[in-house]
Amino acid sequence: MTRAVWMLADRRTADAAKRKLDRREIGAQAGLGLLAALVAGGGLLWAVTAAHSGAVSAGDLTMFVDAVAAVQGGLATLARDTARCHHALLLLDHYLEVTTAGPDLQVRARPRPLPGLRQGIELRNVWFRYSDQHPWILRGLDLRIPRGSALALVGLNGAGKSTLVKLLCRFYDPTRGQILWDGVDIRDVDAGELRRRIGAVFQDYMSYDMSASENIGLGDLDALHDRARIEAAAARAGVHDTLAGLPHGYDTLLTRLFFMESDKQDPATGVVLSGGQWQRLAIARAFVRDRRELMILDEPSSGLDAAAEHEIHTCLARHRGGRTSLLISHRLGAVRDADVIVVLRGGRIVERGDHHALLAAAGEYARLFHLQASRYQADTPAS
Ligand SMILES: Nc1ncnc2c1ncn2[C@@H]1O[C@H](COP(=O)(O)OP(=O)(O)OP(=O)(O)O)[C@@H](O)[C@H]1O
Ligand SMILES: [Mg+2]
Q1: Looking at ligand 1, which residue's alpha carbon is closest to its atom 3?
Q2: What confidence score (pLDDT) does residue 383 get?
Q3: How many Cα atoms sit within 13 Å of 137 on the Cβ side?
């Protein structure tokens, strides 16, 4: 709700600035237009009078009219180009602001080397809010993900699950507390180095206006031109047949952004994938980052049909095997095999344990699990 109010306020400020600019542009153009019309009108009057009295010939008059039209056209172009130039300079300001901005995160002058993960990742009393004006999202989390184990994170919308993922990838630093990678605070290591050790499917994954193979290869730039690796990742994510069947196979553009309206009808120019197909592509992008030490999966199957979801989770479980992983899902059937399931509510851990322990505890997890299970069972013949 608050975010919507802020967005609305930002939108209004931007619209007001745009209106002010438009008004100035219209004012300048109207002024110049009026001046040009006065000069041209006066000149024409003089020329017609002079032609009437025989001071100028009909040819002179035609040339004069042409010259006036050319000058008017030139002035209009000048006004338009000046306005465009003004727009471009405003954008350049934004560009300079972005390119000269300092780092969002504190960067150590001498980052510590990041050891290969041996023991695990630990969150120690982690508190987080997006800024001093925002409410606390994580409130004192203590959590361990031992190396080689699968941790699942569940909780209602807005509980802070994806926020925790952002902290693990170091898109933000904890406001208080520490995240330790084998005892080393991730604030002390190079963020790029940390991220190279992580493979992730984000809840709000990107879809790039590029070809299918590039969309997968961007997961690991070393694989960008390695078609065999890209196809293997796509096959594991169950999207190989779809991509191979496109008009130009893996080289088909997955966008119609760059084409004229008439070309958009032609599927060979670019293809629009469905939401579930994009999600499989995002999973393939993570699979191409093979052999990473930590695998993060934030709602990897939310857009998939039931059969695809089952297939993907079986594949992910196989892929996770022996690797440290964090899985977030609202479908509790998908997380039941995790070594530890953690329930997050209001930024706090309210329950933790494996599936059976949590069911036996008859708390929040058990309530949600039975709720979901009953929805499926309600219409079965046995019931
Ligand atoms: N960039 C941001 N700036 C400010 N607030 C944010 C930002 N991103 C998320 N939030 C807020 O943080 C809270 C937790 O969001 P988060 O995305 O971590 O929840 P979640 O548990 O992943 O929810 P879901 O199940 O819907 O994916 C929400 O109240 C959200 O509005
Ligand atoms: Mg989320």
Answers
A1: 130
A2: 44
A3: 22
